[in-house]
Amino acid sequence: MSQVTNRDELVRIVVQQGLTSFDEPVELASGAMSRDFIDAKRALANGRDLSVACAAIVDLAASMGIAFDACGGMTMGADMFAHGVALAADCDWFVVRKAPKDRGTRQQIEGGVLGAGTRVLMVEDTITTGGSTLTALEVVRATGAEVVLVTALVDRGDTAAPAFAAAGVTYSPLLTWRDVGIDPVVPPA
Predict the structure, then answer these.
(1) Integer Cα distance of 6 and 1 in angstroms
(2) Per-residue pLDDT reduced to its tens digit, 116-172
(3) Residue 29 three-state SS
(4) How far apart are CA 141 and CA 120, in angstroms?
(5) What separation in angstroms does the CA of 114 have from each of 73, 111, 119, 168?
(6) CB-based contact 136:114 (threshold 8 Å)
(7) Which one of 26, 45, 80, 104 counts the least CB within 10 Å of its CB?
(8) Burial (CB count <10 Å: 0-12, 13-18, 19+), residue 77
(9) What is the dihedral angle through the alpha carbons of 156, 157, 159, 164, rounded to the nearest 10 degrees?
(10) All domains in the chain, ordered by first residue
(11) Is the distance from CB of 105 to CB of 145 less than 8 angstroms?
(12) How many CB atoms within 10 Å of residue 16?
């Protein structure tokens, strides 16, 4: 499948299987309110649909000339993509815990070992402000790894791109609020 075909199919999958519109706004992880809720995990629960999304992520990186050695991000939003992209691109996967494990190895990054020379593709399911991903970005950078691209299945607004630019990282979502036909989400002031 071509990138355009994967992307077109993703729009259909997200809108038909993951988009719910409510009469009253619901609170998102960013604290923003929206009548439109995108449940990426439900939308991509089927293996074929997840495969389309992961292929689109690999296609996006390739179209930008970006090579990577590992794929991951903050758990839970990154988990399915980290595993799927690792299979599609034959790379390592990882997830970042919200806090270091309080037992055993006490590590905050699970899966592949990141370090100097590791080129990382960071992924997320839905983004409003990018807060969770920016937190994970700092944890990944602390290993010495280089974050070469951040992407998300859907960017719900226009706030994340400037935040990633300020953090000095390339950001390109697969889909935006325009693609899925919702109003942009504006975070609280």
Answers:
(1) 6
(2) 999 999 999 999 999 999 999 999 999 999 999 999 999 999 999 999 999 999 999
(3) coil
(4) 9
(5) 12, 9, 9, 19
(6) no
(7) 104
(8) buried
(9) 50
(10) 3-179 (3.40.50.2020)
(11) no
(12) 9
> What is the 8-class DSSP label of residue 105?
T
> How far from 154 is each of 14, 101, 104, 148, CA to CA, in Å?
9, 29, 35, 19
Specify the residue for token string 């495969």.
Answer: 51
Q: Where are the alpha helices (DSSP H) in the chain?
A: 3-18, 40-43, 47-63, 79-89, 131-141, 160-166, 177-180
Name residues whose C-beta falls within 8 Å of residue 51's C-beta, 6 or more positions apart in sequence. 84, 88
What pLDDT shows up at residue 127?
A: 96
pTM for the full model?
0.93
State the residue for tokens 């998300």. Answer: 152
